[in-house]
Amino acid sequence: MRKIIILPFAELDIKYSVNYYANIEEGLEGKYLKVINHAFLMISENPLSFPIVKYSIRKFALKDFPFNVFYVLEKDTIYITAVFHSKRNPKVWKTRERKLKT
Q1: Beta partners for residue 4, in sequence order
Q2: Quick check: 82 and 93 in contact, CB under 8 A?
Q3: Buried (b) or exposed (e) across 42-57, using 16+ Cβ within 10 A?
Q4: What's the CA gap between 30 and 39, in Å, rounded?
Q5: Are β-strands 3-6 and 77-85 bridged in parallel, bridged antiparallel, or unpaired?
Q6: What is the per-residue pLDDT across 12-54, written as a single tens digit (0 to 9) for each?
Q7: 82: which strand partners?
Q8: What domains sit in the chain, N to C, each tagged with a CATH number?
Q9: I need a surface site. Which of 7, 64, 72, 83 has the fewest CB within 10 A?
Q10: How far apart are CA 55 and CA 101, in angstroms?
Q11: Which helix (H) or strand (E) holds 96?
């Protein structure tokens, strides 16, 4: 398993999503977090298994929630750059890889 670092923008993505689901239905935020944690486990075990969507950014599609986890693998570390709703403007997460390299 590789080390995962959740970058600040991705932490905010998760926080906002958790708050959203908490307001929709009691306990739904817990289900969402469970799916996110499973995604991180799958990514850490098999980071090269998921498709590259732009430059070195890879995407893992969540099950049961309309979100994608975007990440970059550098040596033995995985950087989670975004946890984005599939309907959200992709220009936002695409700019994050550039920020990672600076």
Answers
A1: 78
A2: yes
A3: ebeeebeebeeeeeeb
A4: 14
A5: parallel
A6: 999 999 999 999 999 999 999 999 999 999 999 999 999 999 8
A7: 70
A8: 3-101 (3.30.2310.20)
A9: 64
A10: 12
A11: helix 90-101
